[in-house]
Amino acid sequence: MLAKLFISIVKISPFFQKNLWKWWYQRLGKRGHDSGWTFMNYGYLSSDFKDRELSPDDEKDRIFINLYDFVASQIPIDGLSVLEVGSGRGGGASFVARYHNPKSIVGLDFSRTAISLSTKLHRDIKNLSFKNGDAEKIPFADNSFDVILNVESSHCYGNMANFVAEVYRVLKPNGKFSWADLRASEAVKETEDIFNKSKLKIIKSETITDEVIKALDNIHDKKIEMINSYVPKIINNAFKDFAGVKDSKIYNSFKNGNAVYLSKVLQKVS
């Protein structure tokens, strides 16, 4: 049911879309606090992408980390100020802080429960902080960040064009924006038009649906185990659809081409 709603959600009003996702993620933020679950993406798996050596604690999340590593590796981050918009439970921001060596990274999310949980889970990482805020009204001054990351989050926003305009505003001159997310195939042109009409210059674009499907296949059993252990039975099936397990509506949409996964790098050219 939830996955069907997800695939068709681009057809409903932006206000309802945004608030529906906010309600859902607030609910997720209250689940599985002791599970070690800090990632909420579909993952990335490619034979062409060199696996990074990870600590034993991080190794269990390699498939999810791979997506963040792919997105973060598209642009220089070492020694720079970074903002992640849509940081969820903070696993991705934590990885970037520890492995990509930014001067600082702020994780921004519109779920207060997610921000509270992220702050607690990652409190020992000195160059990482979290802030509650709206992607369409980013609570930072103009020209604040060298880099902005956005991973599998923008499909929740009510107005993608407003978000992209805010990215441009808070990026420093020549700053870069690395983005990855899924879209219903029928919504791809609208998304492309938003990027093309923005003030940002597109540096790189690619489709990574195959790599995401491989990741979903690889992590299927682990996701089923986690869902059965930590998700209440009343929303168990809906959560399996949300998580993209095999034969879910979202998974099948990737397989049959009704949904795609896109990646872009853009720059604020001064």
Task: Annotate the secondary structure layout.
Layout: H1 2-8, H2 14-28, H3 56-59, H4 62-72, E1 81-85, H5 91-99, E2 104-109, H6 112-121, E3 128-132, E4 145-151, H7 160-170, E5 171-184, H8 188-197, E6 201-207, H9 209-230, H10 236-243, H11 249-256, E7 259-267
Parallel strand pairs: 1-2, 1-4, 2-3, 4-5
Antiparallel strand pairs: 5-7, 6-7
Helix pairs in contact: 4-5, 9-10
Describe the structure.
- There is one protein chain.
- The protein is built from eleven helices and seven strands.
- It has 270 residues and is α/β, with parallel strands linked by helices.
- The protein has a seven-stranded mixed sheet with strand order 3-2-1-4-5-7-6, sandwiched between helices.
- Helix 5 links the parallel strand 1 and strand 2.
- Helix 4 crosses helix 5 and helix 9 runs antiparallel to helix 10 (236-243).
- The chain is globular and about 50 Å long.
- It starts with a helix and ends with a strand.
